[in-house]
C-alpha cells in the first residue's frame, strides 16, 4: 500500500463551541491507518510530570478527534517523539 507523508498539516475543527486551528507536525497515511506524530524538545522523563502529561494528552486527543472526523473510516494512532532523547527512548505511543 502507498504511504502518504504530510508535514505541518493545518487542521481546523470545533471544540466546545470554539473554532480551533492547530498544526500537526507529521501525518502519515497508510491504507486504513493514520499516524499523528508530534515532536517535542526536552526529554521523555518530563512526560511523567502530571501537568505536562495532561497537556500532551489533551493536545493529541484533539488531533485524533479532528482527524477522525475527517477520516471516520480510518484507525488513528498518536505518537510523541522527543528530539533530545537517545535512540530507543524517543518514541511514545499515546493511548488516548
Defining traits:
96 residues; 5-stranded mixed beta sheet; alpha+beta; single chain
Can you describe what's shown?
With about 100 residues, the chain is an alpha+beta fold. It is about 20% helix and about 50% strand. The chain contains 1 helix and 5 strands; from the N terminus they run βββαββ. It has one helix spanning about 50-70, and strands at about 5-15, 20-30, 35-40, 75-80, 90-95. A 5-stranded mixed β-sheet has the order 1-2-3-4-5, covered by helices on one side. The protein is globular. It starts with a strand and ends with a strand. About 10% of the residues are buried.
Class based on secondary structure composition and strand pairing: alpha+beta
Q: How many helical stretches? A: 1
Largest sheet, if any? Answer: 5 strands, mixed
Give the averaged pLDDT, no decimals.
Answer: 87
SSE order: EEEHEE
Query: How many beta-strand segments?
Result: 5
Amino acid at each position: 500500500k502507498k504511504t502518504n507523508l504530510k508535514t505541518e498539516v493545518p487542521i481546523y475543527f470545533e471544540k466546545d463551541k470554539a473554532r480551533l486551528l492547530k498544526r500537526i507536525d507529521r501525518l502519515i497515511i497508510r491504507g486504513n491507518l493514520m499516524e499523528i506524530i508530534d515532536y517535542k524538545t526536552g526529554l521523555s522523563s518530563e512526560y511523567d510530570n502530571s501537568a505536562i502529561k495532561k497537556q500532551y494528552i489533551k493536545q493529541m486527543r484533539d488531533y485524533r478527534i479532528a482527524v477522525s472526523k475527517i477520516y471516520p473510516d480510518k484507525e488513528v494512532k498518536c505518537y510523541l517523539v522527543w528530539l533530545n532523547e537517545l535512540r530507543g527512548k524517543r518514541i511514545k505511543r499515546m493511548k488516548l
